[in-house]
Request: fold
Amino acid sequence: MSGVEILWVVSCIAVAAFAQSLAGFGFALLSVPMMQLVLSPRDAVVISTLIAAVSTTSQAVVDRKSVDRASVKRLTIASYLGMPAGLALFVLVSDSVLRLTLGVVVILAAVVLSRGFSLRDDDFRSDWALGILSGILATSTSTNGPPLVFVLQARKMSPEVFRSTINTIFSLANLGALVFFFSSGKVSSHSLLGALIGLPAMFVALRIGYSLRPRVSAEFFRKLVLVTLTLSGVSLLLKVVL
Reply:
């Protein structure tokens, strides 16, 4: 990696980790498109997954008292069911098709949530369907957050429960995705180096984000989630066009 590439990767990871510490998600949605400006799409996906595995696991441990364990169990199992199909897409389908599809899905999800969509507490069909979709996205684009954000936000979780639950699912899903990547030979020395140099920036950004959490109200948190979703979708679509 050149000096410019290293500096850019570190900056992308810091920005994405800070956003995730406040919103509970968004690391891959922000870091992958940004890193692709200087790295290959596949290196960006693997680096993001490596860093995210550490980031989400650390946040899941810190926030473990607020986790909704039933949702974690359903959505994690469903994610693992979708991962083999995602890995096949990662190998076979073009990057532009994956970005276009994800961008449209993310924007539609933000629009539906902004209109007050909600799920009944006893209706878990959406959990399984969106969990499987999240698993497909985990191993194809490293951006498995939108389906999880949609289903958890639709259940009107508090910011504390939302962050803890989604990061626990992310942690378990990222570890599974890494097993698939390593076993299929998709983790290069280049991507390992990128992840190692980005770890210090990630921890600093998380520390800053955690210190600001008490100032984030529930209403502001909801708006932050919707804005992050929308901007992520737009950035993916722009990457296809430009």
